[in-house]
What we know:
By secondary structure, this protein is α+β, with helices and mostly antiparallel strands. Helix content is 16%, strand content 29%. It has six helices and 16 strands.
Amino acid sequence: MLDAAPCPTYSLRMHEISFLVTPELAGRSLKSLALGTLKFSYTQFKRLKFSGGLLVDGTPRHSDYCPRAGESLRLVFRDDPSALIAAGSAPLRLAYEDEDLLVVDKPAPLPSVASKQGGETLENRVFSHLGMPEDFVYRPVNRLDKGTSGLMLVAKNAHIQQRMQRLLHTESFCREYLAIVRGAPQPAQGDIELPIGHGPGIRRVISPEGRAAHTQYQVLWRGEGLCLLRLRLLTGRTHQIRVHLAAMGCPVLGDFLYGQEDERLPGRFALHAFQLSFTHPITDETLRFASLLPAEMQGIIDDKP
């Protein structure tokens, strides 16, 4: 929600914000409007400033320019297009879409972003879904590992991505997961607060020199040597849930990096981002989404072959 009183009425398209300057906002500099009213980061504002993206009635203006009431302000994001990206070979699974955001339901083992190894990724599918625009820039707000399925948020422009990433580790952005693990943590409900640092290769390790990491968990179901956990991230370190659970002696089932593979989960492990809620950066509405447990994980709980 914009914090000026009254707020400007504006339209947000893929790479542009525009609105008419009201009498209440007249006389404020473009810098003040961008950093204060629209809550741009300073880095983002500098990109606008030096790329000629500050336009008043269609004319580029300096950041100190103070528009008058009735003038039209346009802030144009001149993104550098991504490297050539191929169209996705499968449709995007959507939980929600509006002019600002996509909430996607990522299957596993699908990578979230393109890499040098090539192959199909969620990035390809977003590209196709948006009509394969020439100036496409992929803007995930949060990411999921290749072997993790579930809900992810993708922004449609730099402004929304930056605003949502400010909310990532606040009460305004909540991510919850379901995981099948070997063993069972004790007690059945609690908090894991262990710092996470870099290990060899892509591994992460518990380390006193690492960054603070906080995961909440609750046991939902117990089976023979397994249990189902509900988890909530309060920080967002790489591999956080996987590292924390392995440190508790309860590695995620099928996790080849911190436990061992399981033939019932080809190419993936038993971790699913099942619930996502956040405050919409434009409407200030609280949105909540849920994703069903994938069949391969449900089958293990139901003891199906």
